[in-house]
Amino acid sequence: MTARPHILVVEDEEPLGLLLRYNLESEGYKVDIAMRGDDAELMLREQVPDLVLLDWMLPGLSGIELCRRIRQRPETQSLPIILLTARGEESERVRGLATGADDYIVKPFSVPELLARVRALLRRASPNRVATSLEAGELMLDRVSHRVKRGSRDLHLGPTEFRLLEFLMERPGRVFTRGQLLDHVWGMDSDIDERTVDVHVGRLRKALNKPRERDPVRTVRGAGYSFDENFGRKA
Ligand code: CA
């Protein structure tokens, strides 16, 4: 089910970008290159890759600002990022990690080391993140086509219900408060009443469940909601 991991390289030095592309493609990754920070931001709005290699100094938008914006969007909040810094910018590295990069590597670097870091970070990121579809019992959510099926039935979810289900299915069994769901699914600076979450959970359930069908979304009293990790398993 898993597609080739997709890596976005954001690097304004063309020879280095090409070197990275060549080596990453040889490892079986799908690679896109952006040479400007603002171009990379647009590309990330079109499609979320599995990992970003992000240069620190970039025209258009700095690596650090791009990193900050990536972390602000719910769609890319947990996107793995490796920051590429030049020697002498090392004191800045702390700032980079504080802004939300997962790892950094100092230029000039050895290609095998970079590839090892990429592999390690992709492994560390939840395997659900890399999967193109999420499944639980008869429920299947396809991230590529944005379709959800229960058995052979196509379910019709609004965009918010889709993101909500995707978020919960990625983390089965974990309970999230309404505030956390607002942060992750609606976005950090959303100024929405927490009851909105209940409204959308209600809509999601209506779309998911026919009468007498088991509900995969659990309400945890006094806490919030979770995706039932036992859904689809025999009791
Ligand atoms: Ca640069």
Describe the structure.
With 235 residues, the protein is α/β, with parallel strands linked by helices. It folds into 2 domains: 6-129, Rossmann fold (3-Layer(aba) Sandwich), CATH 3.40.50.2300; 133-227, Arc Repressor Mutant, subunit A, CATH 1.10.10. It is built from 9 helices and 11 strands. The strands form 3 sheets. A 5-stranded parallel sheet has the order 2-1-3-4-5, sandwiched between helices. Helix 7 packs across helix 8 and helix 7 crosses helix 9 (195-208). The radius of gyration is 20 Å and the shape is elongated. The chain starts with 5 loop residues before the first strand and ends in an 8-residue tail after the last strand. The structure holds calcium ion. Residues 12-13, 55, 57-58 line the site of calcium ion.
Looking at this protein, list some descriptive labels:
single chain; 235 residues; alpha/beta; Rossmann fold; Arc Repressor Mutant, subunit A; 2 domains; five-stranded parallel beta sheet; four-stranded antiparallel beta sheet; 9 helices; 40% helix; 21% strand; elongated; binds calcium ion
Summarize this entry quickly.
By secondary structure, the chain is of the alpha/beta class. 40% of the residues lie in helices and 21% in strands. It has two domains: 124 residues, Response regulator (Rossmann fold, 3-Layer(aba) Sandwich), CATH 3.40.50; 95 residues, Arc Repressor Mutant, subunit A (Orthogonal Bundle).
